[in-house]
Amino acid sequence: FNTIAPSAAAPYTYNGFCTAISAWNAANPTNQIFEEGTEMQQKHEIAAFLGNTLHESGEFQAAREYMQCGDNIVVGGQVLCKPCASANFDWTSKTCSISLVTGGAYTDP
Fold first, then answer.
1. How far apart are CA 99 and CA 60, in angstroms?
2. What's the burial of 76, exposed, middle or buried (CB within 10 Å: 0-12/13-18/19+)?
3. Of the four listed, 15, 21, 69, 98, which is most buried by Cβ atoms within 10 Å?
4. For residues 24 and 107, what is the distance between their CA atoms, to the nearest angstrom?
5. Residues 6 or more apart in contact with residue 67 via CB below 8 angstroms
6. H or E element that contains 96
7. In sequence order, which residues have a C-beta less than 8 Å from that of residue 53 and are 6 or more positions away?
8. DSSP-assigned beta bridge partners for residue 79
9. DSSP output for 39-90
């Protein structure tokens, strides 16, 4: 995962990927993602999924289209984001000077 997405930003991390798969499979026992077909078919499905999502998410850096989770912290293993308007986002430090959330707090994405 880190080889194909070395600059992945929260919540697009390997741990986040595994958590999402586990959550989907727990909620959908008759429609398990990446667990149907032969091992080769499963590998093809994962490769196709990662290829598409890497492209659509700016190589796992466009968390909530960059702004919504560009400024984030991790508290107790959970990613909290400070939603931001582009005019208030510093691309160098990846921080938001004025949050779109009332009171400027970080929030669950």
1. 22
2. exposed
3. 69
4. 23
5. 83, 84, 85, 86, 89
6. strand 95-96
7. 60
8. 74
9. HHHHHHHHHHHHHHHHHHTTTTT-TTTTTTTSEEEEETTEEEEE-B-GGGEE
For residue range 44-103, what is the model confidence (pLDDT) as tens digits? 999 998 888 887 777 776 655 555 666 778 888 888 887 777 778 777 787 778 887 777
Instruction: Calculate ∠ Cα 40-2-92, nearest 5°.
Output: 145
For residue 91, which amino acid is it? W
- The reply to whether the predicted model has a pTM over 0.90 is no
Token readout for 12 is 């697009």
Q: Which residue has the tokens 């107790």?
A: 76
